Amino acid sequence: MNPIDLDRVLTILGAAAWSMDEQSRARVAGALALTVFDGHTRDQGTPYLEHPLAVVTVLRAEIRVSHPETLLLALLHDALEVAPESEALLTQHLGGPFTAGLRAMTADHRLEQRPKAAGDETRWRFKQAALPPEDLLVRLADRLHNLRDLAASPNADRRRRFLQSLEDFYLPLADAARGLSPQLEAMHALLHAEYVRQRQEVRP
């Protein structure tokens, strides 16, 4: 696979169709993504940046999202999880409100760079349930891609944990939000279909 460069990031974002100001912001966000995710890999051994780019693709190609800020948030949704120290840089170049959105999508123990503790899962679920619709759409697209990517993970327990959290939390959350927009309705359908597919695969 060809290396990920700024041109590829901008193409996946669909930035050529954006206004000049939006294209300029996309170039800044793309350069930041290349910097923040550089050297990081997923547990599958793939470059980390491939994941947020896949989330952008889900939103654009399957949910028909075209709003630039939503797609930029998707591009950088894991930035503070992977590199919490990048917050000041992101704020400097993309603004406080954008970084606040990233913080709202990031688990507290990641932001605080500490091991996960008792109560963190409950706080995390409250944070996700409080997200505004566009940000929630990004979080659900992230979960969808993670589910689709389970087969490539060497962690045998990962599928069980992801399916359990999907059943316990993400599907009910998506169901509760599905009436807020056609995009959230479509996302609920995709998540449910993926859940059914995964459950069929693990049947004895």
Question: Describe it for me?
Answer:
With about 200 residues, the chain is mostly helical. It has twelve helices and no strands. The chain has helices at about 5-15, 20-35, 50-60, 70-75, 80, 85-95, 95-105, 110, 120-130, 135-150, 155-175, 180-200. Helix 6 (about 85-95) packs across helix 7 and helix 10 (about 135-150) runs antiparallel to helix 11. It is globular and about 45 Å long. The termini are far apart. The relative contact order is 0.11. The mean pLDDT is about 95.
Give me the number of helical elements.
12
- Report the β-strand fraction as a percent range: under 5%
**Biggest β-sheet description:** none
Helix/strand class: mainly alpha
Helix content: 55-70%
Unreliable stretches (pLDDT < 50, length at least 5) are: none
Total beta-strand segments: 0
Radius of gyration from the alpha-carbon trace, in angstroms: 17 Å
- pLDDT averaged residue by residue: 93
- First-residue to last-residue Cα separation: 35 Å
SSE run:
HHHHHHHHHHHH
Shape: globular
Provide a concise account of the structure shown:
The chain contains 12 helices and no strands. The protein is mostly helical and 204 residues long.
Protein topology:
Elements: H1 6-13, H2 20-36, H3 50-62, H4 68-75, H5 79-82, H6 87-94, H7 96-104, H8 108-111, H9 120-129, H10 133-148, H11 156-177, H12 182-201
Helix pairs in contact: 1-2, 2-6, 3-4, 3-10, 4-10, 6-7, 10-11, 10-12, 11-12
